[in-house]
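Question: I have long wanted to understand how a fold can be written as tokens. Here is the record:
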Amino acid sequence: MTIHEIAIVHEAERFSHRDASRIFDIAMRSRPVRTVVIDLNCAGEATTSAFAHLVLLRRYLLRRGRDLRIIGLRDRAAHLYEINRLASVLPSEPALQAA
């Protein structure tokens, strides 16, 4: 059986650079999968440095034939994502598509 994706759920209200760094470490230690999915449904706030860290993670994964997706963006985190025009470098999907 081949595993195609791994979901990492962030459970705090704020998504920071430290949280993104922890996710980076988890993604690197996990079994190689086609797609890493990060669920930010609980995070109403995020920092630009956290998103920047995820962009670097995605670049790293793409070089290895893998990918990264974000699901569940909401509130200020979604607004920050939109105003920084991250959709082209850090794809996002609605949370319902992750199931």
DSSP finds three helices and six strands in the chain. The radius of gyration is 12 Å. Residues 5 and 21 are 19 Å apart (CA to CA).
